[in-house]
Design a protein that fits this description.
With 292 residues, this protein is an all-alpha fold. It has a single domain, classed as Mitochondrial carrier domain (Mitochondrial carrier fold). The chain has 13 helices and no strands. Helix 1 crosses helix 4, helix 6 packs across helix 9 and helix 9 runs antiparallel to helix 10. The radius of gyration is 20 Å and the shape is globular.
């Protein structure tokens, strides 16, 4: 658990600028009047925001994401590991059943943090600043904090795809690459195998999650003070986008999403592996590992 949380914190800091940029590309799919715009225009608007406020844009949403390492990851990783050990799947290692259970159980804990994270970046184009967390919470409290749970349904699907590909599939592929494809004198070590496996898994992961991510952004970047956007209406926006711009409309942010996924997965597992090795060394020195 300590290694999973350490890897998650490392990944969060490294990939935050890419995460922020991708959200803006997807968020600017519509103009201020709600009309769908060409993906090229949306990308140019996201570029303009980053050029005018590079430091603030790169750090936007980082604080709630780091807080989320605890509030989001402990429920998710806790459920993932607990279910794995309970059913003794593959010697206690996470499998598909554990990933499914963890995705459902952790959704109510994860969603409020993701909502706050996206709200922080939602008004850059209008106000030129990251929205303060306390301002978001104050607006949500006026509605009994119900807005913080917008987008929970697509999040469950997103979380399931993330768990099955990133937490279950990637480590298995990495071990296979190290054991079968890379010879001892190939010059490609643990990090190289990690990077290759992340690059293989990421396109599959993004293909599965990009439409779900679009739905999350639509539902979670709407003003908290205004009416919520239902899942049906969010799907309708994506359908309208696809009719006008084809697959370019459906898969806005796909390219940057793949880049983000490769960075995120590689950094998460590299941080996790480093933490695991440090913790194992500690346990060995303290005599906490019993003899076989």
């Amino acid at each position: 658990m300590g290694a999973y949380l350490g890897g998650s914190a490392f990944q969060t800091v490294i990939d935050n600028p890419v995460t922020a940029y991708r959200q803006m590309i997807q968020q600017y799919a519509t103009d201020l009047k709600g009309k769908a715009v060409d993906p090229t225009i949306a990308r140019n608007e996201a570029n303009a925001v980053f050029k005018s406020n590079p430091f603030s844009a790169c750090l936007s949403g980082l604080v709630p994401r780091l807080i989320g390492v605890g509030s989001k990851r402990i429920p998710k990783f806790g459920a993932l590991l607990a279910i794995s050990y309970a059913i003794d799947s593959e010697g206690g290692k996470p499998g598909l059943v554990a990933a499914t259970g963890a995705s459902i159980i952790s959704a109510p804990f994860i969603n409020p943090i993701r909502m706050i994270e996206k709200q922080q970046r939602a008004y850059f184009k209008v106000e030129g600043r990251s929205k303060p967390i306390m301002e978001i919470l104050k607006e949500a409290s006026a509605k009994q904090f119900k807005p913080l749970f917008r987008g929970t349904t697509p999040l469950i699907g997103h979380s399931l795809a993330s768990a099955t590909t990133g937490l279950v599939g990637q480590p298995k592929l990495q071990k296979y690459i190290q054991a079968k494809l890379l010879s001892s004198n190939s010059g490609v070590g643990q990090f190289g195998a990690n990077l290759i496996s992340s690059a293989c898994v990421s396109p599959i992961y993004i293909l599965m999650t990009n439409p779900l991510s679009r739905l999350e952004v639509i539902m979670q970047t709407n003003s908290i003070k205004g009416s919520s956007i239902s899942l049906t209406k969010a799907i309708g926006q994506v359908v309208t986008d696809s009719k006008e711009f084809g697959l370019r409309g459906v898969f806005r942010g796909q390219g940057i999403g793949i880049a983000k996924a490769i960075i995120s997965l590689t950094m998460f597992h590299q941080g996790r592996i480093w933490c695991m090795e440090q913790l194992k060394d500690r346990n060995e020195k303290l005599g906490l590992i019993p003899d076989e």
